[in-house]
């Protein structure tokens, strides 16, 4: 009985609440890399942490060839799913069909493939020197949500009312 009384008086029987989260941590930017950026980082053949235009072009050729499993010089939508799984890490990762297939024929030509990746290279190459360094391959993004306000615990009936 004494142990139970001691435990109750120390609050051990109550569920412990996690410490409050600092709102500043919730609004800090997130550092990430898109699936395309991870793929492009893999084009770095000499492992100097820089992707030159030559390495990029060679990597595009390798990845397109890998995606074109039937060697018909285009990537069908079925082939695109397998290509995305292998090269981007997930079959639904971007870039996807609507990024590549500009003419709507449900196939990705080598030219469509190059146009999309050249656009991404130009977008990532912040200093326009024709080389992608790791800092250009990462993305800083702000949270897209508002921190949740702590919920008030429900009041028990007659709580807060004076007894008569």
From TrEMBL:
<feature type="compositionally biased region" description="Basic and acidic residues">
    <location>
        <begin position="149"/>
        <end position="164"/>
    </location>
</feature>
<protein>
    <submittedName>
        <fullName>EF-hand domain-containing protein</fullName>
    </submittedName>
</protein>
<dbReference type="InterPro" id="IPR011992">
    <property type="entry name" value="EF-hand-dom_pair"/>
</dbReference>
<feature type="region of interest" description="Disordered">
    <location>
        <begin position="139"/>
        <end position="164"/>
    </location>
</feature>
